[in-house]
Design a protein that fits this description.
alpha+beta, Ribosomal Protein L22, Chain A, 3 helices, elongated, Ribosomal_uL22_CS, rRNA binding, rRNA-binding, ribosomal protein
Length: 119
């Protein structure tokens, strides 16, 4: 069984979010949550929320199908971060100039699945 969660327009740069996503790819879901819980980077919080949402989606799908659900059997199968929209801002500067500020956003996707050997 597979479950997916996506967070769009997250106000963290894709490069910083990819660092967190690379930490958890291929690990057990419960272990990945603990890694993200204690990671000092600010991008760890949105990635952890998406991972917890994917785990909750797996639990819901298992209940809906009438299957047994064990959170310890879930593995982070695929994770990736895509670039979202760029928010363009201007800051006034001296002598009529304006500095352009680009605030980047991300789309974070996490897919969890049962271990391959269980089924």
């Amino acid at each position: 069984m597979e479950a997916k969660a996506i967070a769009r327009h997250v106000r963290v740069t894709p490069r910083k979010a990819r660092r967190m996503v690379d930490l958890i790819r291929g690990k057990k879901a419960t272990e990945a949550v603990n890694i993200l819980k204690f990671a000092p980077q600010s991008a760890a919080l949105p990635v952890r929320k998406v991972l917890e949402s994917a785990i909750a989606n797996a639990r819901f799908n298992a209940d809906k199908a009438g299957e047994a659900f064990h959170e310890n059997d879930l593995v982070v199968k695929t994770t990736y971060v895509d670039e979202g929209v760029t928010l363009k801002r201007f800051r006034a500067r001296a002598q009529g100039r304006a500095a352009r500020i680009n605030k980047r956003t991300s789309h974070i996707t996490v897919i969890v699945a049962n271990k391959e050997g269980d089924r």
